[in-house]
Structure formats: structure tokens, C-alpha cells
Design brief:
The radius of gyration is 27 Å and the shape is globular. It contains six helices and 58 strands. The protein has a 15-stranded mixed β-sheet that branches. Strands 17, 20, 21, 23, 24 and 25 form a six-stranded mixed β-sheet that branches. Strands 29, 30, 31, 32, 33 and 34 form a six-stranded mixed β-sheet that branches.
Length: 775
Amino acid sequence: MSASVPVTDRQDRPWEAMNSGVIRDPIDPSLLGHAEITPAGAFEAGSYASFTLVYTAGTFGIDDSGSLRVCFRFASDQGNPQFDDPSAANYCTVEASNGAVLQVRWDPKGNVRPWDRTLWIKVVKGFLQVGDTITIRFGVTDHGGPGMRLQTFCEDTFEFRVLVDPIATFNFQTLPVQPMISIVPGPAAKYAAVMPTLRRPGETFALKIKGEDKWGNPTDRCSGKLFLMAEGSIDGLPESVEMTEGVFGVTVPGLSVSAPGQAAVVVTDEAGIIVARTNPLIVEDRKLVHFWGDMHGQSEETIGTNSAFGYFAFARDKAWVDACGHQGNDFQITDAFWAELNRITAEFDKPDEFVALPGYEWSGNTALGGDRNVFYPTDDRLIRRSSHALIEDQTTAETDCFTARELFQAFADNDETDVVCYAHCGGRYADIGYAHDGRFEKSVEVHSSWGSFEWLLHDAIKFGYRVGVVCNSDGHKGRPGASYPGAGKFGAIGGLTCFNVPELNRDTLLDCMRKRRHYGTTGGDGGRMAITVEARFTHDVSLYHDDPKLFSDSKPVTTRTAMMGDIVHLPEGEMELEVSVDSNSPILKVDIFNGLDLVETIRPYGEDDLGARLRLHWEGAEYRGRFREVIWDGSAKVSDNGVTATTPINFFNPDKTLDHAGPTDISWKALTTGNFGGADVYLEDAQAGTLSVKTPLVSFEVPISEIGLDEQVFDASGDLPRFFKVSRLPAVNPHRSLRFTRSVALTSDGDNPVYIRVELEDGTRAWTSPIYLYR
């Protein structure tokens, strides 16, 4: 069986730039030849397989020094073809039917994005005539190799994109019919269950349950009964639900909680084993409630995976976020695709059900300001690009804004006061020292699939900006709202932002963005934690939503309370901070910050609760830009003691392992990209012996008896923080809720940006937008 699909059949979409590296098409595509792949069909994500791709030369053959390229998307994390070890994974062979000598190399940047991962085959002796073939075997198993490792995420149309330079002019053209397969989820490795985090008494809501394979893909390979047990009173909750093969997840609608309180659902299998626990639902009579969003990601029309339509469908139906935005690289968005993208967002946008927000990523080079997310309230707005780098039609190039300063000025000059922007760190990072305009740029993104970027918030505080905090995925794998890193260089799971709004629609969401009344988390199972941060004052204060430093007509409200994102002038009196955190994972700590200063760390347990469990923690980034990975491959050994068990923390990539090698030794393979990972180590004796740790950056030895509640930090900092920490935890931490009140001393000069950072036992973090207080 073989499969090849016409480019025109699959992508009969005039708005999509093909980006195949073609400047022009001097040869009729029907004369270029054709390619087929066997076997075809569906293959499990992350599995090993073998394929034979046969290219048959067309009318011109391929001349001496002509070439063939087989290209894969940037986002793909499949194994790289290799030609040296026949017994290893991803072994590849290439041969010509007529004996022509071929030169073969793999180049991850060998073609124009998004098709940049390139197998390059050059004819260096001889030539091909019409009908001659080049046969490429991917994942050869003849010598004991397991095959070719497929990408770890799903794609209906995974292309082996073939380009040909038959006349040796270095002008590669795309074959009109492309070989492709389908990549589908594996069996369920775990379950996930979600409810809202904050609702009013009597409001209806839904419980949603899904299975995920080991790579985080929602899967339809689930069957059997799951039992539901309420913690708290939930009206309408059935005793069980049935998971059905071929169906992605189960939704239980029409639930409600009649009185103020807290509730959650525990999900067990038929053996009574807990397989999932929902986030907590807080029920209070509040004006503002919670809705969750992932506002930043891309689809295959730019550098992501799967279509823009599928992107929003995944966010709504499989990730269960309430709001989503598509943020394609502007230099890749044609005018036709911009119109189509706006049509898609309008189709998905349903007030009170799901918000699809129009926008794009302004993708200027770092020296010109770096990446910014741009959001519009309507579907009819002008896209102001950083360039037309991958757009052949230059008709609208005069609207380009080459620098972030020009972008903000264009918004101001054209009275586009309803635009909302975020500063983003992806491949290019936002240099907010070079350019920032608080009239439009309302928040900084401190976490995404690229890693964690707390330094971006620190930059804003140093410059005196009043910005909020958001977390998103910037996902390229077609999974907005549930974006796992897979096996590639993305080191973190995608983040989520919780918006405090009275109801769900575009207007309320954008109003929340402008007022900074939101918080961000690093996503995952613990990502939908419920957080409330409120300030209470002993005297009347003036509260602003629009920064009075930027908006001369900003009108204050007199009050004695404020919440995250608010700007408060308090000429006299004191402030108390009231904090509540509720999660489905035990809480490790809450850090209170005033600007860059850590005011206090609050834990739900004390020294007397500590047990024979050590937390090893590694964290950091090498660099602000693309090449930020820090390798933490290492080992730990205890002497005069023993290791009874270990638990990995933030090991999202199954290829990165934590191994309990013996009674006293553990080892691991891990990387960070600004985020953190680690391991819990359970000891035979809580106090005896010595802990020794070795990593490429940090090595140390410390008596176990000296490891306590406070973290011991072993620093390897460079331009950005890189460090290893060790502390002691309770053997069991039951605290999933934490409430406290604290007085926070305020300085008389400048802003007091007061915010909290939460860390959960499962490795999830959250940051709230600061309350900006000034005397």
C-alpha cells in the first residue's frame, strides 16, 4: 500500500503560503516526477516504524549535481535520520536505481521554514533519466535497529515533503503530489479531569474527563467504567461514566453547587484506584469568576501543526479552555490567510461558551524589539507586520512596522486604543527596555512551552512598568491549552492564564486584560489552581484601572480593597494582603514579593512536620534567546543511608528518565529552559549520612542532617539564574488549600508591585499580576 496526496487536494487554500523554498516555478510541476511512500495509513505517536519512499524522476531526470530534498516541519520532534549505525534507531539508506553516486546529509535548517528539517540528497556522480528512481528507507531494521522514531504528537496529514532541483540550478520545486501518513494517539497512560475553579452558587457547569497517552495526546483508545466521588456537595453528579473506544473523553453537563463552599471530584477505576482528581471548585457569591485561556499558539499555516480550524477545535473540545487566540508569525501570514483566520475566529467565537480572539504575533527581530502578541476585539482589523519575509505578495508591505516602537506608534497614530499586546519570549525575546508602551502592552508572558521567563517580569519592574502576568503555550504541536513538550527542545508544558471576568465574551476578556486582573500558571494537572489575592486598607485609597502615568484622564475609584492588577494610590494608612490558594496537588509554598524583594515564604507545614523526604530541584536557562537549554544530566548518592523510593518532578518527556540505580544511588537525564525539574528522594533514615550530587554545572556534598525546611542553594548563575537546590519535605503533605493574611511593608518612593508566586508539590508554579501600590 502506498499513499501520496496532491498538494492542491490537501491545501486548496489560497491564503496559505506554501513556503517550500521556491522563488518561482520555472518547470511545469507535472514534469518533476512523483514520490510514493509505503506503508501508509495511521501510526501511533512516538512509536517506531519503517518506511520506504521512492522518488521516480520526471521528464528532466536529475542532472549531475542536481538534488532532492525530503523536508519535515520545524515543529516535528521525530528522530533525525542517521547513516552511521545500522543497529541504532533512525538508520536511513538512500540509493539510485541506476547506480548514480549520491551524497546524503541531514540538515535541521536545510530549507525555508516551516519545512526546514531536511534530508538532502545530491547527485555527485552520474545522473538520473526519466523513470529512474531514488529509494529512501527510513528506520531500517535489517541490522537490529528499532526503526524511525515518529513525532510524539498527532497530525492527520504528516508529510514527507519532496522538493526537486532537476536541472542543478539550486531552484527547488515542490512535487504536486506529496507522500504522507497519519499520526494518531496511543493508548491511555493516564486520565485528566477538569471543572471550573470559581463559580457562583447555583450556576451550572460541566465535569470533563479524558484519557491521555504517554506523550499527553488526548486519546480515543479508552474503554470501561470510571466512578465519580464528590468531595463536597455537587448536584447532578452521576455515580459513574463510561469511557468508549473511539470517543475522545466524556462531558457531564448540568452540574451545580447550591451553597458557598468548595468541591472536587475524585475519579476511580473499576478496581477502586484513583486515576484523576479535578481541580477544586470554589463557590462564592462574587462579581468576577474564573475562565481559563491559552491565548498564544500557531497552526500549520505558519510554523505549527494541523490547521487553524483544528487548532481552535482542539482548544475548545480537547483542552477545555474557555478562551483561545491564534498567534501566527506575522511575516508568514498572507493577506488571504489573515482574512481566513479572522473568519475562523468569528466562527468559533460564541459568547458564554467559548471566546476566540483575533490576533497575531508581531515577530520582529530581537534587536528591533522582539516578539509581541497582538489581540483585537473584532475580526476586521489591519495586520501590521514586522516584515513580509515569507510573503511573496508585497502589496501591503507599506503597512509593515519594522520595530516594536513603530508598531506602538502606529496603534497610537491610528487611534487603535482597543488593541492589547503582550511581551513574549519565544525564539526571539521581547526587549522591553528597547520598546514598551503601557497604553497597549498590558502584560508580560512569564511561561510557555519554551520555558519560564520570570526575568521578563523582573525587567518590567526594574523599568517601572505596570504590567500583568500571563502564561500561555506558544504551542507548535496543535494542542493549545494542553501543550506538552514531547521529545524536542521545548522543555516545558504550555501555560494557562486564569481571567477574572463577570461573564465570558470578547469584551469582558479584553477588559480583564487591560486591567491586568489575571494570573498565570505553568499548566499541567495542577495548572488550574484557584488563587485569590486581595489587598485591604486601613484608610480610603484611590484605585485606578488605567495607569494615571499614561492616561491623564484616568478616573480613580475610592475604595478600601484592591485585587491583582489594580493600581492604588494610598497616601496614608497600611495594607493587609489576603491570599487563598486551592489546588488538586499539595501546596509547597507561597512566596510574597514586593517588586524584586522576597518579603516572606509561607508554607502550610513547619519544621516539626518534616520527614525522610528530600526535594532535589534544578532550574535555569543558559540564555534569553533560542539556545537556552541547560543540561542537568546527573546523579546523587547517599552514604551511610539508603534510598527507598524516588518520584520525578516535571519529567514531561518520557525520554528523560529518573533511575533508582541501587540502594544508595539515583541518576537522571533532564534539561530546563528557564523552568525547573527535580526529584523527591525518600530515605531509610531521616538524618543519617551524606548526600552527594553531581551535575555538569553544580556538584556538592552536604550532611543529610543539615538539610531542613529552608532550601540550600548551589549557584551556577551566568547571564540568567542557573542553580540546584535541596530541602526537606514532610513524608506526606496533605495541604491542598492555604489561606493567610499578611501585612506588607510599603516603601514611600515609587511603586510597590506586590504579587505572589505559588509552587505545588507536583512541580506546577503560578504567578499573580502585581497590585501596584504607591504613596
